[in-house]
Amino acid sequence: MADEFTTTVYYDDDANSAHIDDETVAVLGFGSQGHAHALNLHESGVDVVVGLREDSSSREDAESAGLTVTTPAEAAAQADVVSVLVPDTVQPDVYENAVEPNLDAGDTLQFAHGFNIHYNQIEPPEDVDVTMVAPKSPGHLVRRNYERDQGTPALLAVYQDATGDAHDTGLAYAQGIGCARAGVIETSFQEEVESDLFGEQAVLCGGVTSLVKHGYETLVDNGYSPEIAYFECLNELKLIVDLMYEGGHAEMWNSVSDTAEYGGLVRGDEIVDDHVRENMEETLEAVQDGTFAREWIAENQAGRPSYTQLRDAEMNHDIEDVGERLRALFAWADENDQAAAEAPADD
Ligand code: NDP
Ligand code: MG
User: Fold this and answer.
1) For the purposes of burial, counting CB atoms within 10 Å of the CB of 271, is it exposed (0-12), middle (13-18) or buried (19 or more)?
2) Which listed residue, of 25, 26, 250, 284, carries a Cα 20 to 30 Å from 338's Cα?
3) Is 113 a catalytic residue?
4) What is the pLDDT of residue 343?
5) pTM for this predicted structure
């Protein structure tokens, strides 16, 4: 049994904010991660400059939040730490045009995901540090947790340590965005990228939606009503996942009926069988050997034809229509949950 962590976890006490206090951090992009990193760092006392295109739709948001905004090139020129938080598919372009010409020896190039470094879409000069602080959550939670004096767990990796301080700078950055309050887990760019791509393809985004669709279709094709199938295969998934999130599989199994537990235990591995495991191995191999990365880069270069088609098909699946109608019907349930969650504790 794994009773000890196999990796190092850092907290606020391990970080030294001096590594970033006197630095200027350029945050390129003000989207999901960008707005959270920029605002959290700013409120942690770090000198932040946000880099956005002239016609950026986010410019006003950043300025009205009290941040200094300039172009990505100018921000990179002013900064000691350049945090690249534009979408992964546009990073190589932004890097080439705005960042690379403005990198000085000893600067830090900071990412929240390792795709472009790991698959050589960005090749930094040898005299800069290259780090990753990757919060394990969407940006709005990174921001909200910070505002509530809480943290969001993050991964920390160093790809290149030109100054000898890359690790400390990365950890100070993680502290600045509030992640060291929750725990910062040491990893490598390779491990972060490969596990992230595999996870989202095989389990989280691809695997789960496919499982839900197959379950739904099996019921509907056998004459059960789409509404019942929707509730059973999609809606209830959240309740099950919440239990797993809180207390692992054990809490889930303990909370469902004995009949559900026996049925799930005896049939689960028959549904997701060795064949699925073989598919997972292939999916992982395509991530490891770069096949998936090449496919995705080519897809973008071609204007995303397959992506658009697959997305349309997904949006037009029957389950979407049924779900939309049912969610509208039961919207009051969410509003009650929301109100209860936001009510003062002594209410
Ligand atoms: P977003 O899609 O939210 O970023 C949008 C921002 O990028 C906007 O401010 C947009 O400005 C700007 N932008 C888009 N295109 C350009 C361009 N060509 N030049 C300059 N600015 C541009 O990105 P995310 O926050 O989702 O992702 C950022 C990084 O964080 C990625 O590496 C991602 O993998 C990683 N990450 C994301 C997570 C998430 O939950 N979203 C979780 C963990 C990591 P404009 O108004 O000009 O369009
Ligand atoms: Mg991911």
Assistant:
1) exposed
2) 250
3) yes
4) 52
5) 0.91
